[in-house]
């Protein structure tokens, strides 16, 4: 069962998210919060698999809450659910350690798919957000490609294989099956890859892989 915390200052949005997620029998919304500080407190208490946070909330916004969760409840993956798809918000959310970025205007199936992906240890960006990120990367790729290649050069062959599969959006279980490894070994490899690439999450690792030329912009 995937245990989810939903945080949004609008009760109707929380109710809608709960109803959509309830359509999947493998997802259980264990807590709701109306502000970022309450979300952090509830996450510490319930230890959900995924915290679904709005960006603009009172007391503490979703970006600050994501950073706090990354520090204090690292086992809880964070996904942003917001109406704001501006590049500034996307960049700040990724820098805060967010594993998913979902738009409220997206298809409800996108929400379920995103929560499932993030809970499985993968990364998930709504298609519109993904296109925006790729466009931004393409605009400045030449200035960052050399640095990305230097970082990737520090990886072993096996770590590079794992990075490519992470960048392809595979979960730890899927990577384990592809490389004939146990899931615990894959988790260790992923942790090492993130450390050596000096990034905080799988989305940032995928960006490095793209900039280094290991994967196509898809």
From TrEMBL:
CDD domains: LuxR_C_like, REC_NarL-like. GO terms for biological process: phosphorelay signal transduction system; regulation of DNA-templated transcription. Pfam families: GerE (PF00196), Response_reg (PF00072). Residues 3-119 form the Response regulatory domain. The modification 4-aspartylphosphate is found at residue 54. Keywords: DNA-binding, Phosphoprotein, Transcription, Transcription regulation. Residues 148-213 form the HTH luxR-type domain. GO terms for molecular function: DNA binding. InterPro entries: CheY-like_superfamily, NreC/VraR/RcsB-like_REC, Sig_transdc_resp-reg_C-effctor, Sig_transdc_resp-reg_receiver, Tscrpt_reg_LuxR_C, WalR-like. PANTHER family: TRANSCRIPTIONAL REGULATORY PROTEIN NARL-RELATED, TWO-COMPONENT RESPONSE REGULATOR. This is DNA-binding response regulator. It comes from Virgisporangium ochraceum.
């Amino acid at each position: 069962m995937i245990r989810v915390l939903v945080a949004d200052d609008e009760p109707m949005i929380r109710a809608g998210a709960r109803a959509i997620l309830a359509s999947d029998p493998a997802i259980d919304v264990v807590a709701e919060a109306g502000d970022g500080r309450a979300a952090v407190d509830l996450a510490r208490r319930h230890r959900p698999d995924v915290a679904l946070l709005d960006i603009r909330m009172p007391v503490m916004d979703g970006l600050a809450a994501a950073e706090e969760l990354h520090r204090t409840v690292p086992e809880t993956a964070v996904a942003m659910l917001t109406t704001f798809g501006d590049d500034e918000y996307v960049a700040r959310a990724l820098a805060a350690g967010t594993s998913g970025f979902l738009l409220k205007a997206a298809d409800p199936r996108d929400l379920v798919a995103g929560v499932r992906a993030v809970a499985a240890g993968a990364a998930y960006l709504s298609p519109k957000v993904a296109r925006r990120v790729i466009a931004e990367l393409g605009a400045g790729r030449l200035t960052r490609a050399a640095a990305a290649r230097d970082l990737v050069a520090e990886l072993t062959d096996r770590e590079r294989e794992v990075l490519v599969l992470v960048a392809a959006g595979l979960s730890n279980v899927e990577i384990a099956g592809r490389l004939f490894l146990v899931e615990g070994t894959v988790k260790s490899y992923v942790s090492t890859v993130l450390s050596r690439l000096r990034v905080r999450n799988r989305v940032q690792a995928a960006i490095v892989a793209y900039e280094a030329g290991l994967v196509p912009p898809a």
